[in-house]
Amino acid sequence: MSGNYDRLAKMIVKAREARGWSQSDLASLAYVTEVVIARVEAGNPPNAVALKAVEQALGWLPGIFDLVLGEDASSEDGVVLAAEGDDEDDGSAELRELTVDSTIDWA
């Protein structure tokens, strides 16, 4: 994986540990699985939805991951795709459903 993803992974680990959170704690707050957090912290990016959820759970400004990732974050459609053959559910489908639910007051 690129140096930018490794840099992002280190930032996430430091932020999580500074808050006294386990990977499980961060996963719960981001509404993703522990597997997703482990992958992010190993420098293996999940899909963009899960990455944004982690960003929000850490309380970071929207788009900060994109700044850290720079060119690595860009693709034709702006989505980080899972590795080929990676069919494990990372919870992002549920998160997408929640974010489009207009009945939820996010404020």
Number of beta strands: 0
Largest sheet: none
> How many distinct helices?
6
- Rounded radius of gyration (Å): 13 Å
**Element-level helix/strand string:** HHHHHH
How large is the share of residues in beta strands? under 5%
The low-confidence parts are: 74-87
Which structural class do the helices and strands define?
Answer: mainly alpha
Helix fraction, binned, reads 40-55%
Ends apart, CA distance between termini: 36 Å
What would you call the shape? globular
Average pLDDT figure = 74
Notable features of this structure?
mainly alpha, 107 residues, single chain
Please specify the SSE layout and strand pairing.
Elements: H1 3-18, H2 23-30, H3 34-41, H4 48-57, H5 64-69, H6 92-99
How would you characterize the overall build of this protein?
It is built from six helices and no strands. The chain has helices at 3-18, 23-30, 34-41, 48-57, 64-69, 92-99. Helix content is 52%, strand content 0%. The radius of gyration is 13 Å and the shape is globular. Mean pLDDT is 74; it is low at 74-87. The protein has 107 residues and is mostly helical.
Short synopsis of the structure:
With 107 residues, this protein is an all-alpha fold. The chain contains six helices and no strands.
